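#onboarding

Welcome to the new folks! Below is a worked example of what a typical request in this channel looks like: someone posts a single protein sequence, and someone else replies with the predicted structure as tokens. Don't worry about understanding the tokens yet, we'll cover that in week two.

Example request:
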Amino acid sequence: MSKKSMILVRKILVCAICAIGSFVCSGLGMSYASIAQIEVYQRADIDQDDILLDKISEIKSDDRELINQLKNIIIGSCPLPGESRNVDRGTIIMKLKQNNIDIEKIDIIGPQQVMVFRQGNRISAKEIEKIILDFVYTRLPWDKSKIKVKGIQSCDEVILPTGVISYEISPPKNTDYLGTIPLSIQFLVNGRPERKIWVSVSIEVFAEVVVTKRPLGRHKMITEDDLEVVVMDLAKVPSNGIKNSEVAVGKRTKRQIDAYAVLQEDQIENAPLIKRGDIVIIVAESDVLKVTTLGRAKEKGGLGDVICIENVDSKKGIYAKVMDSKTVRVEF
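Example response:
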């Protein structure tokens, strides 16, 4: 073989070896078709719970499968609605490695950190106050002109995730909506509970009540001159306080009552017309029949009271309403 022929063969072999080496390297060393580029934003506004890579950066690559994989990588948790946090490049690189991404083939450009801001809906203190007022006024049985709502105490504002906002207000069980009461407000976003706050509100309801003008002794018969009607906050009035003087006039006190005290139902009673042991006439009457017999009172009773009477003949006890000092009636 001539010298020129040997040089030509040598060149052919070198080219062949290079071609084979290039083929082997491309088959064994490259996991993706091309290098991806991640351009990190300066700021990202997010309205979800997780920080995804594609929400804080722009991802470029010829490999669509790689792009989809990178997009769905979770970098971390979003801050609370209305707040922000910084995500640095080191955190992004760590998350890429945890997801088996070859960092050597990824080009990350842009700022060293991105500020992530969580979008949200703000409910101001004024809006919370209106929510409470609307709730209270729709549940109070009194005229609105007699009601004064004050002292609403709550947080300054509530920040919720974006979405359709609703709320549920829960008062204490069996509340009478008088004085200071606590209320809980459960805020929901798209029907899902998100935040609960507690609010206290003071409610004043002014109404007429009956008070004594002077001290009243035990078993004192009550007259109009003993009483007066004043306007008071019902939160300061006992639940059984009397609001109409006609209820008390003609009855007697059960015990001594101080002057200027709110008169209560359990402090008065009908003046007894019948005493225990009195002989009375028992009247049992229907539309077609009237029967009378004698009985003996087993207890005292005033007008309209229902007391136990013993039938003199049968010795059986029955209950009858006091009609006057000598008569009781059996109700059919």
